[in-house]
Amino acid sequence: MRPIDAAAGIINACEPIAGLITGGQPSAAQLASLRDAGVKVILDIRDPMEPRPYDEPAEVERLGLEYVNVPVVAGATSDQAMEHILSALRGRGERPVFFHCASGNRVGGALIPYFMLDHGLEEDDAVQQAMRVGLRSGEMLEWGLDFAHRRAS
Q1: Is 86 helix (H, G, I), strand (E, B) or coil?
Q2: Which of 43, 60, 70, 126 is the 20 to 30 Å CA partner of 114?
Q3: Are 38 and 3 in contact (CB under 8 A)?
């Protein structure tokens, strides 16, 4: 089974780049399916204080996966958070990653610089891909575009 197939049922599940699966909050069973399909890293950008149906860090550890948490909160986005996210994505090598927030909205905003700076997409194409991933917020759109524009200069 391919990792994207294992993400079936996760809101906004998408594979914008080979080995990078994105989406909203997975269930514990979906995490196990992702692991069984070869995912090695869970990149979670939800704030640890957001309500969740289970203890995700503990479940990820129990499954033997790497857990990376970079909290992204509306109204408090930062270059530091974006740099941590990009570092995790760039450092994955060939290891498949599941990158999520609650719905895919924050993930979409965070992927804009990755699409533009690391994969050479033009702004319109990067935004289109981010929307496919789940981007719906103007704030997250501006966060990603502003970061990408400043780093491209």
Answers
A1: helix
A2: 60
A3: yes
Query: 26: which DSSP letter?
Result: P
**Residues 87, 124: Cα–Cα separation, whole Å:** 23
Residue type at position 25: Q
Domain with 135, as residue range(s), is 3-152
Burial pattern 63-76, b for ≥16 Cβ within 10 A else e, equals bebeebbbbbeeee
Q: CB within 8 A of 38, min separation 6: which ones?
A: 3, 96
Q: How many domains does the chain have?
A: 1
Q: Which residues contact residue 32 at a Cβ distance below 8 angstroms, ignoring those fewer than 6 apart?
A: 63
**CATH code for the domain of 7:** 3.90.190.10
pTM more than 0.85 = yes
